[in-house]
Amino acid sequence: MSDRLLTTQWTRREVLEDLLVPAAAGVALAGLAGCGGGRELSADKRVGAPPLDLVVVRNGEPEVLVRQAMEAMGGMQRFVARGDRVVLKPNIGFNRVPEQGANTNPEVVRALAVEILNAGARTVKIFDHSLYEARHCYARSGIAKAVQDLGVELEFVDERKFVDMELGGEWLKRWPIYREVLEADKVINVPIAKQHSASRLSLGFKNLMGVIGGRREAFHQNIHQALADLGGFVRPTLTILDAYRILVRNGPQGGSLSDAVLTRTLAAGVDMVAVDTFGCTLFDIEPAQMGFIVEASRRGIGRMDLAGLKTRTVEL
Amino acid sequence: MKRAPRIFRLVNLRRLSQAVCFMLFLYLFFRMEFPPLGPSGEMEAFRILAPVGLFFYLDPLLAVTTWIASREFLPVLLWSLATILSAILLNRAFCGWLCPFGTLQQLFSAGKTARRRALRSGRWRWSPKRNLKYLILAFFVAGSVLGLQQVGWFDPFSFLTRSMAVWVHPSLGLGLDGVVRVLDWIGWTALADALIAGLRGVVVPFDSRFFLHALLIGATFGAVLALNRFETRFWCRYLCPLGAWLGLCAARAPLVLRKHEDRCTKCRLCLQSCQGGDQPIPGEPWISSECHLCANCVDTCPENALEFAFSLARPKAAERRPLADLSRRAVLGAAVGGFVLAPLQAIGAENAERDRKVFKASDKLIRPPGARAESDFLSRCVRCGACMKVCPTNALHPAAFEGGLGTLWTPIVVPKIGYCDDRCTLCGQVCPTEAIRETTLDDRLGRNGREPVRLGLAYVDRNRCLPWAMAKPCIVCEEVCPTIQGQKAIKLVQDRVQAPDGRWVDVQKPVIDAAFCIGCGICENKCPIADRAAILVTCVGESRSAANQISLPGGR
Nearest Cβ partner of A145 from B41, B422, B472? Predict the structure, then answer.
């Protein structure tokens, strides 16, 4: 890891000035203001508010789920502007095949990458700070193969690229964040829904642990605070919850086909709290019991009152 | 006499051959790696298709000692017959033309001072001290009769591959880190990014890695290379048991160095450039078993007094002396030494396994997945370090004396540094002598009626574990524990415990369900207690041992 990057304290302003000014210039800061706090990373520069807060699509194949969801959200061009540098962050954390439900479905990733490219993105970077050995994960997950001919950049995490950032969190004050996320114009978060014995569920917030470095294993001693701190800093432009298969037991990596349940569902939203709240319903878990969701909602990162959100459910 | 065109001169052909073989060796060494994702991205990406064991298969020394020690015929080593044949016909051409370690010695011997030294110190002359290599050979062959495969300490390909894997390869990574740091510092970050993306996993380690005992292995390697400054190709002349073996095979080789004493002006240029130190100068007997066929003498002789020729005539002792001064007594003495020292080498696991005694090896002797039972393993492992090179998680390290002298430089899993990925089969793919048998995913995971390959067993140190000892939440070991036959080996039990400040808190405590533990060590590797994990893996319960178990068979 590069000493210079780690020992230098980067404030958000410095990053904005050094790295993000060109990107920030053309994009409305209105999006920032609308998201409360203004503490978050400027990855959240969306082009106007979408017509819906949450879209749920059921009973489809991965590619169709993505297409329908994006259509209902008003099209990818609503979120990705021509010339944007986009980070697409799936879960590629485990040396598991798609049928085991540990990594984001490769066809979901592919379909999203196509949507982003069609919206005119300049670059699409795909990576995850894998928990298992990265090359095995990228190959076995099927994601390397799924995106190989698209012209996207599938990148292995380079330890040098973690930059110490002031998160301004309640527990995590400062933490190394992956440079590509800091430099990107848009971050699109595409987690898979899984059981997890510390956070109970691994959804959008938990997926963001793949853009950070440092001693991640220490998060589990205060996981809900940690996830809220992280999610409050890295605010994805869009969160697409892949629930084509969900892992109901032995998460987060599973390994048995019987632990993965085919639910053929996908949820999309700008509000990561809302998307994760919906994710709870897939597991019959009361969102109010989910520490990080309650915490994030309390901090105004997003809303967990599903009833109050403009939601559309598309049954195919 | 007309000379051949420059390119076809024997020395240049020899240099070409050396360059090709050295590059091939490097290529195969770097291919001992997780295969590139490739344009197809298919699942065969998990198989190494390059013949990374090629040089080992061509090594008759490894072939014979492995066959003898393991009492089993491994057919792939039959390739080494080609090398034997080359020695019978062409002398030690293998050493001069093909052997990458020999080429490296030659590179480190090169230079004007070395040439002058050869004359001044009289090292051009044959010395009986060079028979040391025959004694080394006899020592290890005798050991192999007793079921030990220690020749890897001195076998050139094992020595080179091990040194490259443990010392050179990680050093290349550090070197790139240094370059990248400078590039970052001057602001050429994009170039640095591209360098890392392009080189890691190809010629530098994919992730930063280091090995136990790298200092010792690196220092030995450095010392062997440095000895070339003392005498040209010191290793090949004094130490290499493979060279000795080929010298034995070449005793009656029909390829001879014909000397025309009438043309010789005693300029001694041939002696300056001679690689083997085999006395090419007319007037001295040619020590044919020392000649690497480098052809420097033929090439440098300004009078064309030397030439290679084929002859079946029985040479006169004054002209040609293979195996000079090699006394039967010395060889027998070395062989006896091998017999005598063999039991010392075998102290530890070896005897325990054979005698069905209680397993007395170190708990740290965690072998890679697919490794044979310890005595069988030690009779095949050539200590080449290929498994350590290929291991993507840096889990495999050279052992020291964990199981007695006999385990030196054999691979062990050190979970604290790297865990064994439950779906990785790379080490078994590169092992040249099948000391580590290639496993399938079914073997590793216990699917389709197979028993999972177990390396050992995890246990929780309750005095260090956060929920057990400090009433703090932590589930990392359970989180990372792979699911084997449908269940995780680490299960969480709910408990209400009193924290040090008196509060009652609910915690999930990890406990081990041994039936599902394969000893992969990822729990120990990822445990947040960084210095000594609160969950540790030892080798008890390993599949390959009948003795090293907790319960009787079936009672795990």
Answer: B41
